[in-house]
Amino acid sequence: MLSVIGNAWALLLGMMFLMVGNGMQGTMMGVRGALEGFSTLDLSLITSGYFLGFLGGSRLAPDFIGRVGHVRVFAALGSLVSAAVILYPAITYPWAWILLRVLVGFCFSGLYVTAESWLNNAATNETRGQTLSLYMIVQMVGIVTAQGLLNVADPAGWLLFVIPSVLVSISFAPILLSVAPTPAFETTKSMRLRDLYKQSPLGFVGMFLLGSIFAAQFGMSAVYATQIGLSVAEISIFISSIFVGAMLLQYPIGYLSDRQDRRILIVAVSFIGAGAAVLGWVFSDSFIMLCVAAFVLGGMSNPLYALLIAYTNDYLDPDDMAAASGGFIFINGLGAVGGPLLIGWIMTNFGANGFWLVVIILMTILGLYGLWRMTRRVSLYADEGEEYEPVPYAPVSNATMSMVVEVAQEFYSDTENEAEDQSNSAETPAETRD
Fold it and tell me: Please, which pLDDT band fits residue 430 given cuts at 50, 70 and 90?
């Protein structure tokens, strides 16, 4: 782990600043938007704008990098983000915020592609798993830190928009001054969505549903918290609870997933997440219970993303794993674009608790679909016997870009190939090996 930190500390530090900046401005949309009198529908469109831009950027940013290089793309997109964040309090109209959020989402996707491609280049086959784990920890710490910074100033002023702008600008320094050489960029390999669905219908459908759930956590949770009358300090704790749960429960769930039929765990985690949302709905007048519900929901939904990837990889050839990463991101992104619109409509018509209602429905659908899929496909454990070794679980969050998902896929592929080599070596007669 120390060697990983030594090789990639500058990249990780820069990514932490990026995540703090992104986490602050994401939450501020809900808080400041309510102060400006934006409707729930307006705020849902603003939230969807970010994910729409993010999805578009994930497809176009690699082309920009291929044309002009990492450094120019990173500097250009980072400058646009800094400018856009400063403009939020200056142009307080819903249509302007929607356009700015599309721009910010597009730029952040490009920033993630650039930084994470450097991270991939800095990792070796031996350190890729540790690098990925450390990167996920840095992401979560950055988002949680962002919520704490919301309490340093009045959300009705400018300072809480200046801080994320400055943090995004500061993030350039450790990344662009890193001694790690600029990597040769290759666009993410592609796999047809139809083929990805055939390999794992559960993984495909689950990714789409999780996109909506994650959009609820990242964007609409602040809107919900504001509508039920929480203070800025309480909102920051409430949202932090989601990501603390994601960070702390990622590894226990990963440990369990490597030791049983993953579908059982997918179903269980989905229903537990739905139960947490029921808890939040029923006890919405208790701040402590809201935080408990948020902690459990975040601890279930975020590891579920990595769990679905690992499950799908159980059915993919090692050579196809990296190619599947683009499909994962695209399907998840489609769900993230539509999720806030659905939540905004329901919250407008049924009140603030419509936030929990949508999460309950989506998590329950995922759990029920997982149960149904268990009747349609024989478990690999049952099909191949007790000797079956699943592809190891690797921590990946749906806050990541396609590049880091591909890093995870390469880790899966390397591990699977090594396992196959060891198996072939063990089956080779001693005289042949000699």
Answer: very low
Query: How far is residue 304's CA from residue 320's CA, in Å, rounded to a whole number?
Result: 21
Residue 249 CB: number of other CB atoms within 10 A? Answer: 18
Residue 433's pLDDT band (cuts 50, 70, 90): very low
The reported pTM is: 0.80
Query: Each residue of 330-385: pLDDT tens digit?
Result: 788 888 888 888 888 999 888 899 999 999 999 999 999 999 988 877 665 545 54
Cα atoms in the 13 Å half-sphere on the side-chain side of 314 = 27
Q: How many CB atoms lie within 10 A of CB 6?
A: 8
CB atoms within 10 A of CB 192: 10
Query: How far is the CA of 212 from the CAs of 103, 205, 335, in angstroms?
Result: 20, 12, 5
- CB 71 within 8 Å of CB 191: no
Place of tokens 């059982």: 264
HEC-encoded secondary structure of the chain: CHHHHHHHHHHHHHHHHHHHHHHHHHHHHHHHHHHCCCCHHHHHHHHHHHHHHHHHHHHHHHHHHHHHCHHHHHHHHHHHHHHHHHHCCCCCCHHHHHHHHHHHHHHHHHHHHHHHHHHHHHCCCCCHHHHHHHHHHHHHHHHHHHHHHHHHCCCCCCHHHHHHHHHHHHHHHHHHCCCCCCCCCCCCCCCCHHHHHHHCHHHHHHHHHHHHHHHHHHHHHHHHHHHCCCCHHHHHHHHHHHHHHHHHHHHHHHHHHCCCCHHHHHHHHHHHHHHHHHHHHHCCCCHHHHHHHHHHHHHHHHHHHHHHHHHHHCCCCHHHHHHHHHHHHHHHHHHHHHHHHHHHHHHHHHCCCHHHHHHHHHHHHHHHHHHHHHCCCCCHHHHHCCCCCCCCCCCCCCCCCHHHHHHHHHHHHHHHHHHHHHHHHHHCCHHHHC
Task: Of 238, 242, 196, give the one whose Cα is nearest residue 215.
Answer: 242
CA atoms of 200 and 198, how far apart (whole Å): 6
| Single-letter amino acid code for the residue at 269 | V
Other Cβ atoms within 10 Å of 252 Cβ, number: 11
| C-beta of residue 331 within 8 angstroms of C-beta of residue 208 | yes
| Rounded distance between C-alpha atoms, residue 167 and residue 152, angstroms | 15
> Which backbone phi and psi does 5 adopt, to 5 degrees?
-65, -40
Cα 306 to Cα 328: distance, rounded to the nearest angstrom: 11
Please say whether the beta carbons of 244 and 291 come within 8 A: no
* 32 vs 354: CA distance, rounded Å: 21
Structure-token pair, residue 217 = 């956590």
